[in-house]
Amino acid sequence: MTLDAMPSRRIVNFAGFAVCCGLMGFALFAQHVLLLDPCPLCVFQRVAVISIGLIFLVAALHNPSGAGRIVYSLLLALAAVAGAAVAARHAWLQQLPPDKVPSCGPGLDYMLEPLPFTEMLSTVFKGSGECAEIVWQFLGLSMPAWVFIWVTALGVTGVWNNLRRD
């Protein structure tokens, strides 16, 4: 493919934003139509997808040159790595044998009130029984596995797109 046939950086950034909107649309469909309530790790994965989407949108609207492209690439990489790490941890919890699964804990909304932020984060990342339950699969992969794939692909695409030469 020649450079003339490549879509512009702005179009790819808008496409990344649109993919994130689609992912969040499915997450809301799963929650409100399929009645699959998100666990605390799911909520953090949603935050990562929303963050990636917003970075893509701002990059598309700004359409920077020079150092701005590097900044957007770094922000996309950071958000994607964070999202992939949470999704990987979640998928790992789902693969644990039943006797190794942590016990169920309080919900995220409850933990936000009495616990300091760092302690709440530590508790969430340890996971709980509700995070280990696989309630939805597509092509043999659970939702956190799909989130891992999508945020990794979005991160790689965003970094490549914003660092490529015109």
Describe this protein's structure.
This protein is mostly helical and 166 residues long. It is 69% helix and 2% strand. It is built from seven helices and two strands. Helix 1 runs antiparallel to helix 2. The longest helix has 28 residues, at 67-94. The chain is elongated. The mean pLDDT is 84.
Quick tags:
single chain; 166 residues; mainly alpha; 7 helices; 2 strands; 69% helix; elongated
Order of helices and strands: HHHHHHEEH
End-to-end distance: 13 Å
The number of helical runs is 7
The biggest beta sheet, please? 2 strands, antiparallel
Task: Specify the overall morphology.
Answer: elongated
Fold topology:
Blueprint: H1 9-32, H2 40-62, H3 67-94, H4 108-112, H5 117-126, H6 129-132, E1 137-138, E2 141-142, H7 143-163
Antiparallel strand pairs: 1-2
Helix pairs in contact: 1-2, 1-7, 2-3, 2-7, 3-7
